[in-house]
Amino acid sequence: MSTAPRPDEDFTDRVRREWAETHPEVDTSPIEVMGRITRIGSQALQQLDRALDASGVSRAEFDVLCVLARSDRPLRASEVTAVTMLSGASTTKHVDRLARLGLVERLPFERDGRVVLLHLTEPGRQLVDTEFPQRVERDRQFLAGLDEDECAVLAGLLRRIAANVESGIRR
Asked: Where is the HTH marR-type domain (predicted)?
């Protein structure tokens, strides 16, 4: 980290330059994309956390509410877990809190008494209906300066990267 930051560099440029100084034998070009994806995601999630503070729910709890809001039927906890990528224990913890807040209710599953279905209550739906459009608007602001075609190209490229990540490519 011997050289000063350049005015035209972003955080990822600086990190890549620093790695080039300490490990010149490593091709750090993937950081150009993956480093930026990671940093953008982290910063966007931090902003979402701050925006959700006033609602009294965490980002993970909001994710649970959104999964239920998008569904046309009550869901099993395992279905929510699969979509949110939370652990089963985390899903249970978040649902417990959301139920105490009156945002989610547990319903018996008629075919199997051991299974509980999760359903969004009216206050839960109102919270999602208030917060979700605000989240989409923040996302729109993050994309400021990109036209519709650029957004489409970027989305397509990111879709391909997501498919690689989701397929579990390992080396």
From this structure: 30-163
